Amino acid sequence: SFLFPICFFLHIYLVAFFFLMSRRPPRSTLSSSSAASDVYKRQAIDGTLNVLEAALHAGVEHSVVTASTACVYFDFGARGVGHCYTEADWSDKQAMYDNAAWYGLSKTLAEEAAFEFAAQNQMSLSTIQPPLILGEMLNPVLNTSSRVLLDLMKGAKPLIPNECKAMVDVKDVAAAHLLAFQHRSQGRHVCIGACPHWAEVAGILRRIAPGCAVPTAINPELPPTSLGAPAPERTEYSCNKLESLGLVFTDLESTVRETVESLVRLGFDSPQ
Fold first, then answer.
1. Does the pLDDT value for residue 54 go beyond 60?
2. Is the sign of the CA dihedral 38, 43, 46, 49 positive or negative?
3. Taking the mean position of all CA atoms in its chain, how far away is CA 115?
4. Which of 44, 144, 163, 228 has the fewest CB atoms within 10 Å of its CB?
5. Alpha carbons 44 and 49: distance in angstroms, whole number
6. Which of 35-44, 140-149, 152-161 is the least confident region?
7. Separation of alpha carbons 64 and 213, rounded Å
8. What pLDDT digit, counting tens, does each position of 167-186 carry?
């Protein structure tokens, strides 16, 4: 009936809205206290289950939930260099708790809770695991992911971080949700477009925005490892599941270019 597309897009909106609202809790909770842990977990778990319960009562046949690669490779480098992360990998909950990594822990617990709910209620469920999301910005509010690129453009730090970072285009994340829904593809779906070293990203910025203040020297010190392979190595991953559904990832330079164009258009910075 004509109500189906309305229910579907309302469901996608609600899940996406909760994801955006829970990407980062209030700054006042950023501590190693149990109270901070509870805030993170309650926001993620309760919000996810509330949306899934509403979808169940509305008769939604298949749900797609935005998770995160923080649910996949938040293991503080324990799997070492060369490990290829797939949907079978889960982040280390005990290590995240011990290191007060509440965001990653809350996202992991929320995804687990979603699958438990789906199993208990015979619900068909997909989850999508994106990393840092870049690309065209529609919202005039600067988001956490785009701020990372803006800081590099503006030379907020004098040296390029000596590490690789997994990232993906926002259009590809949207397409992943749609493909998972259309194919009723159950389970997890790793959604990573590229994992460049920050020096490669800096080089792209200098080509497309030659007036920007991006640094040229790489920090000789390696940052501590929390996500994926130990720095400065590239995290290996497989997106075969999404690619088998027809997803073709946007090339890195196009993603960076569209992010920069959005930042300039919205007045956050000018490369000239």
1. yes
2. negative
3. 19
4. 144
5. 9
6. 35-44
7. 40
8. 999 999 999 999 999 999 99
Tell me how far apart the alpha carbons of residues 140 and 157 are, in angstroms, rounded to a whole number: 24
> What is the rounded CA–CA span in Å between residue 75 and residue 93?
8
> Residues near 77 by Cβ (< 8 Å), separated by ≥ 6?
225, 226, 228, 229, 230
Q: What distance lies between CA 94 and its chain's CA centroid?
A: 21
Contacts of 110 (CB under 8 A, 6+ apart): 22, 41, 44, 45, 47, 48, 67
3-state secondary structure at position 271: coil
Burial class (CB in 10 A: 0-12, 13-18, 19+), 18: buried
Provide the annotated active-site residues: 107
Average pLDDT of the chain to the nearest whole number: 87
Please state, for a pLDDT cut of 70, what percent of the chain lies above it: 84
Task: Report residue 198: phi and psi, to 5°.
Answer: -60, -25
In 3D space, the residue among 117, 127, 201, 139 whose CA is nearest the CA of residue 167 turns out to be 201
As a whole number of angstroms, the distance between CA 65 and CA 69 comes to 13
Q: Does 60 have pLDDT greater than 50? A: yes
Predicted pLDDT of residue 139: 85
How far is residue 97's CA from residue 1's CA, in Å, rounded to a whole number?
46
Give residue 34's pLDDT: 61
Tokens of 164: 């690789």
Report, in angstroms and rounded to the nearest whole number, the Rg of the chain calculated over CA atoms.
Answer: 19
Helix (H, G, I), strand (E, B) or coil at 177: helix
* Nearest residue to 44 (alpha-carbon basis) of 98, 105, 131: 105
